[in-house]
Input
Amino acid sequence: MGKTFKRIAVLTSGGDAPGMNAAVRAVVRTAHAYGMECVGIRRGYQGLINGDFTMMTRESVAHILSRGGTILYTARSDEFMTDEGKRKAVATCKMLGIDGVVVIGGDGSFAGAQAFSKYGIPVVGVPATIDNDLGCTNYTIGFDTACNTAVECIDRLRDTMQSHERCSIVEVMGRNAGFLALYVGISVGATAVLVPEHELDFEKDVIERIRESRLAGNTHFMIVVAEGAGSAVDISKRIKEEIGIDPRVTVLGHIQRGGSPNARDRETATRMGYYAVKAFAEGRYNCIIGTQEGNIVEIPIDEALQMERHLQMDRYKIMEAMQIGGTLKQIET
Ligand code: F6P
Output
């Protein structure tokens, strides 16, 4: 007989993402549907160390589907990185009779989950981060909403940039990855998009783009920069030095993480949360729930953390082809 799961826990960890609440709700309600009890751990792994918990009923997750953030709070815990911290977290699990933990978060949270699983606590991961930078899944909860938020902000910026005939440098989040920036850049028709995965040639990737756009009759320019590709302020200074125009800088920052999740994030979070608990119910654990080609997949956590996600360079080429003066001949070389 495999391990049985009578009481599971759920926590959210790392940077929050729109749709985390939808995932929490799905975990809690699926657990109850399977006849399990569900404990909500507050403040991520630190809450597990401190025994900071609340019992989750079906009713306790009513009306959170549309809410941004996470009702369980989230944190990054240095103590959990230590052996002592993990032992304290194991002790909390034993004390509360927790048979397994659903971890909702990104790569750092899953590295924590993997380490925790080695202490004998079964884990299942649900990917939620606006960065969409995990190798084991095509999609992470929160990405679509964050993209739409950034697009909405940039559309507004464009109105004022157009009126003043200015250049705007917009820095978007994404940590070390350019998924968010590229997706957003394509969606707003940016003059240039700078991502960490593409080595920057300032003259070709920025100055030439502005010049070509200007020659084509444009009087305002929109440069989207992934935070991992450099600072918007530095890029603005360089543009001013090299061609004398005086850009305005907007760092979208945490605005991108807030707000009500859109339909894609609510629906994906609900499916992933459901499958996370189903895995426990059927005796499978130490895995990450992912999506591949629209289907839910379960990947063993050790394998999942070895998988790398590469920026879709075809999208980068498409972005370039959309720019004024962007010829595919030039791009392919
Ligand atoms: O991983 C999500 C993310 O929003 C990244 O895009 C960003 O680099 C980071 O978190 C910001 O973290 P914090 O909320 O700790 O400032």
